[in-house]
C-alpha cells in the first residue's frame, strides 16, 4: 500500500567523511560546486557531535531518473563535489520522504540539527512506517526519509534545535526519546545512531 | 573533465545488485525462497545472476537484476523496501543491502549466459576522484586483458558507498584463475597506477544457483551448497 501511494520525489542525502580541520574549506568548495547544478538544495550541514568531520548534503529531485543522472555525472567528474583532496569516504543512498512529515525546507528552526539514523531489520520497513503514521501527534522532525537503495534498510530523520540546551536540557520531555515506539517497537530495529549537525551559512535549512 | 561516458539517459539500463547475508546453513532454503519469489509478481526486472558464496564472506547470496531505466529500478526498490518478506527468504536474513549500478561504458555487451562454474566478484571502494581515473587507466589495456579470458562485466555504483566498482570474472576452475591472473600481470594488467585509486578491495568467489542465467546448472547443486557451508 505504501509503495503505491508514494510520490516520485526522491532525495539525495550525501554524507561525506573529511580529513580533520578541512571543514571550512570543504564547505566553501561544496558551495561553489553546487552552483548551477540540478536539484534543489535543502540543507548543507556539518557534524559537531557523533562522527565529526562529516558534511551532509540534502537535495530534492523530481524523480529517481533526475537524481541518478546527476549522481552519475558527479561521480565521473575529475573532482566530485570539489572536495576530493579532503575526502575519506562517501555514501549517497536513494531516499523517499517519510509519510506525514512536512516537506523539508520549511521555515528555519535550527541552527542545530539532530540526525537520527535507525537501521532496520530486513523486512520491517513497512511495519515501521505504519507505526510512525499511527504515532500520537507531537514533536515532528524537520525532515524524514527511508532508503530505497542502500547498504542497509534505514530511516533517517532530522530534528531541529535552537540550542544545545534545547536538546539536552533538565527535562527530556521535549526530546524525541521514544523513536523506537514511533517505529513500532525495538523489535523492528537493528541499530540506532544519533548525531548533532550545524547548518552551513549557505544552507537553506537553518 | 568527466570521462567520455554518455550522460545517463532516463531509459538507460541500470543494474540492481543485492547482497543477502544469511544465517549459517540457510543457503539452500534461501535459494528455494528466491526461486519462488522470482516466479511471483513482486520480482520485476531481468534476472542476470543468483549466486552463493564459496570463498570470502560466508553465507552470502548475490542477486543481480537489470532494469530499463531509473523509473523501473525505483519502483522495484520501493516495492522491495516495503516488502515484509524481501526476496522471499523469510527469516534466513541477517543483513540485506541493495544498490544501483551502471555498466562501465566500454565493458562490452553483457553475456546472457556463462558456463562458470565459478564467478569472482571484485568489489572496490575508490577514492572520491578515482572512478574517472580508474576507467581511463583500464580502457586502453582492457582488450589485451580480455584476450586472455573474458570478464562478465564491470559496473559502478550510483547508490550506497561511492565511488565503488564491481568487476566480475567467470572461471572454469580456481587453477584457471591463478593461471590467467599470472598471465595478465605479464601484460601489465592491472595498470600500475590503478591501485592508487582504490581504498578497499573485497573479493568473493561464487557458484551459481541452478536457475541463475549466468552459470546456472542443475548438476550437483545440493552437494555444492553443503560443501560450501560445511567446509572448515
Keywords:
heterodimer; A: 206 residues; alpha+beta; Alpha-Beta Plaits; 8-stranded antiparallel barrel; globular; B: 232 residues; 5 helices; 29% helix; 32% strand
Structure description:
The complex is a heterodimer of chains A (206) and B (232). Chain A has six helices and eight strands, in the order αβαββαββαββααβ. Chain A is of the alpha+beta class and 206 residues long. Chain A has a single domain, classed as 2-Layer Sandwich (Alpha-Beta Plaits). In chain A, a hairpin with a 4-residue loop joins strand 2 and strand 3. Chain A is globular, with a radius of gyration of 17 Å. Chain B is α+β, with helices and mostly antiparallel strands and 232 residues long. Chain B has a single domain (13-230), classed as Alpha-Beta Plaits (2-Layer Sandwich). In chain B, strands 1-3-2-9-5-8-6-4 form an eight-stranded antiparallel barrel, surrounded by four helices. The mean pLDDT of chain B is 92. The chains are: A alpha+beta (206), B alpha+beta (232). The interface between A and B is large, with 46 and 48 residues.
Element string of chain B (H = helix, E = strand)? EHEEHEEHEEEHEH
Count of domains of chain B: 1
**Binned strand content of chain B:** 25-35%
Biggest interface, residues from each chain:
A-B, 46 and 48 residues
Overall geometry of chain B: globular
What are the segments of chain B in which pLDDT stays under 50 over at least 5 consecutive residues? none
Q: What is the CATH fold-level name of chain B?
A: Alpha-Beta Plaits
Continuous helix count of chain A:
6
InterPro entries (chain B): Dimeric_a/b-barrel, NIPSNAP
Domain NIPSNAP (chain B): 119-213
Pfam family, one (chain B): NIPSNAP
Organism (chain B): Bosea caraganae
List the helices and strands and how they pair.
The complex is a heterodimer of chains A (206) and B (232).
Chain A: H1 2-5, E1 10-18, H2 23-34, E2 40-49, E3 54-61, H3 64-75, E4 87-97, E5 112-120, H4 125-134, E6 143-149, E7 154-161, H5 164-167, H6 179-182, E8 189-199
Antiparallel strand pairs in A: 1-3, 1-4, 2-3, 2-8, 4-6, 5-7, 5-8, 6-7
Chain B: E1 13-22, H1 27-39, E2 46-55, E3 60-68, H2 70-81, E4 93-103, E5 118-126, H3 130-148, E6 153-157, E7 160-161, E8 164-171, H4 174-186, E9 198-208, H5 221-230
Antiparallel strand pairs in B: 1-3, 1-4, 2-3, 2-9, 4-6, 5-8, 5-9, 6-8
Protein name (chain A): NIPSNAP domain-containing protein
InterPro entries (chain A): Dimeric_a/b-barrel, NIPSNAP
Pfam family, one (chain A): NIPSNAP
Amino acid at each position: 500500500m505504501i509503495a503505491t501511494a508514494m510520490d516520485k520525489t526522491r532525495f539525495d542525502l550525501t554524507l561525506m567523511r573529511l580529513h580533520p580541520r578541512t571543514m571550512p574549506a570543504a564547505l566553501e568548495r561544496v558551495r561553489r560546486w553546487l552552483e548551477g547544478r540540478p536539484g534543489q538544495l535543502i540543507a548543507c550541514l556539518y557534524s559537531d557531535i557523533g562522527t565529526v568531520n562529516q558534511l551532509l548534503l540534502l537535495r530534492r529531485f523530481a524523480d529517481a531518473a533526475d537524481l541518478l543522472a546527476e549522481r552519475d555525472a558527479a561521480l565521473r567528474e575529475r573532482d566530485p563535489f570539489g572536495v576530493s583532496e579532503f575526502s575519506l569516504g562517501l555514501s549517497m543512498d536513494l531516499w523517499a520522504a517519510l509519510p506525514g512529515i512536512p516537506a523539508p525546507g520549511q521555515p528555519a528552526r535550527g541552527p542545530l540539527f539532530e540526525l537520527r539514523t535507525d537501521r532496520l531489520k530486513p523486512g520491517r520497513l513497512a511495519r515501521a512506517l505504519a507505526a510512525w503514521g499511527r504515532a500520537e501527534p507531537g514533536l515532528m522532525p524537520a525532515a524524514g526519509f527511508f532508503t530505497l537503495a542502500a547498504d542497509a534498510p534505514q530511516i533517517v530523520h532530522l530534528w531541529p534545535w535552537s540550542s544545545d540546551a534545547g536538546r539536552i536540557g533538565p527535562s527530556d520531555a521535549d526530546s524525541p526519546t521514544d523513536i523506537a515506539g514511533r517505529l513500532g517497537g525495538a523489535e523492528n530495529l537493528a541499530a540506532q545512531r544519533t548525531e548533532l549537525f550545524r547548518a552551513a551559512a549557505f544552507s537553506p535549512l537553518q | 573533465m568527466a570521462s567520455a561516458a554518455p550522460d545517463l539517459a532516463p531509459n538507460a539500463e541500470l543494474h540492481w545488485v543485492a547482497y543477502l547475508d544469511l544465517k549459517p546453513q540457510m543457503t539452500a532454503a534461501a535459494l528455494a525462497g528466491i526461486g519462488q519469489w522470482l516466479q511471483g509478481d513482486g520480482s520485476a526486472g531481468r534476472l542476470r545472476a543468483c549466486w552463493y558464496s564459496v570463498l570470502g564472506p560466508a553465507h552470502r547470496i548475490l542477486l543481480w537484476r537489470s532494469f530499463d531505466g531509473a523509473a523501473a529500478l525505483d519502483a522495484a526498490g520501493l516495492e522491495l523496501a516495503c516488502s515484509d518478506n524481501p526476496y522471499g527468504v523469510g527469516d534466513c536474513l541477517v543483513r540485506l543491502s541493495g544498490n544501483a549500478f551502471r555498466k562501465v561504458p566500454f565493458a562490452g555487451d553483457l553475456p546472457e549466459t556463462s558456463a562458470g562454474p565459478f564467478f569472482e566478484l571484485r568489489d572496490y571502494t575508490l577514492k572520491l576522484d578515482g572512478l574517472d581515473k580508474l576507467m581511463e587507466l583500464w580502457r586502453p589495456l582492457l582488450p589485451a586483458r580480455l584476450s586472455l579470458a573474458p570478464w562478465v562485466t564491470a559496473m559502478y555504483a550510483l547508490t550506497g558507498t561511492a565511488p565503488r566498482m564491481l568487476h566480475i570474472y567467470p572461471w572454469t576452475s580456481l587453477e584457471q584463475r591463478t593461471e590467467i591472473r599470472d598471465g595478465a600481470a605479464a601484460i601489465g594488467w592491472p595498470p600500475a597506477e590503478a591501485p592508487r585509486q582504490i581504498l578497499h578491495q573485497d573479493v568473493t568467489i561464487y557458484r551459481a544457483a541452478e536457475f541463475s542465467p549466468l552459470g546456472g546448472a542443475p548438476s550437483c547443486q545440493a552437494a555444492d551448497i553443503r560443501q560450501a557451508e560445511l567446509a572448515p
